[in-house]
Amino acid sequence: MSEQLNNQELLDIEEVETDDEESSSIERCLTFESGDLILYISTNYVIEIINNHSITTLPLMPPYIQGIINLRGQILPVVDIQQLMGKEESDCSGQTCIIVLDIDSVSLGIIVDSVRQVIDIDLKNVKPIPLKRQQKLLNGMVTMEDGSVFMSIDCQALATPQ
Question: CB–CB of 45/103 below 8 Å?
């Protein structure tokens, strides 16, 4: 004996499927400041945030590679994303920290001015950046409800040698 679904049950199923589709476009992202930009990156890439860590400089490195850190026996390169974007070197302050990332099994740290918070970003609202060819590290932007603009870090470009 087969049971038939009534109209209300069908509507309930469709509503659940719609909710699943909507939630799949929502991404948890860590927001942070670097220079005059507010940036974000998916929390899927973030391993941890560290403060006051000693960076060992290396000779013959591009200027955006600040050096390396030893994080519990793992040696990680540290990238100054401001210099990578063609701006001046980051100024160290009490809020300056290193965000440790794992991008497709490539571990590295990025220096940021300060970490803000973790938020949900609807990927449907992310727009392309105008004049993208001038910006290799950023791959999208989203305008928040308060009018502020957050820029997305292109993790693949960050993990690929320049």
Answer: yes
